[in-house]
Amino acid sequence: MTAQPGLVFGVDPAHYDQHRPAVPELAAEWLLPQDSNVVVDVGAGTGHLTRILLGRATKVIAVDPDEQMCAWLRERFPDATVHLGSSEHLPVSTAAADAVLTSNAWHWFDPAKAGAEAARCLKPGGVLGVSWHDRGHSDMWLDEVQDVILSAHNPSRPIHQLKLPEGLPFSPVEKHVIGYEREMTPQEICAMHSTYSAIISLGDDDRAALLSKLYDHLTSLAEDRGTPTLGVPFVATLYRTHRLS
Fold this sequence. Notes:
By secondary structure, the chain is of the alpha/beta class. The chain contains nine helices and seven strands. Helix 7 packs antiparallel against helix 9.
């Protein structure tokens, strides 16, 4: 495993962008305040959230710690302001942002430092929005694949959960969940799994063997179902809280 699993996604941004299902637009509708001027997308990656925000805010600042991802963002989204940076040091003036948002990235952050930095950047009443968009629970997932995916995560920073440290100037956290199902072929499902940091970080042979086993398993399930695709559950778990005056 790489020492910084959260920085492996830039190895192949095009693959990640194509095969990791995009954030549903409903997520932005719930997270983003009306009439937003300046919005910050932290850990922007290939811009799954950035592209939605560009149509909803006057200025979108996309921040990522991976220069390869920043290069991708600059090329694909010239209307966004892109900065190399981290959740702990945002390139944003104090009390300048209407929203600081992050999708599928909060578990890579130090919650105390990221929360304090978001509070610094936000206007009074501004929104800190945290979301995850991921596969839902299903019997189709192999335990050994799940074990590999979860091996990259720090147990003290659980995914799909937002718990801000006490003392930060935020209102009580609100939660909203959006669930849906998408028909995907076994090939598409395996390609999606190949975008997870722990699987990217495997050696070539180990990664190929794991994805081959998953493919055979999914193909068998599709044959039993009598269709070329499987219904894959997805869940967007959203949290928002407002900056107190």
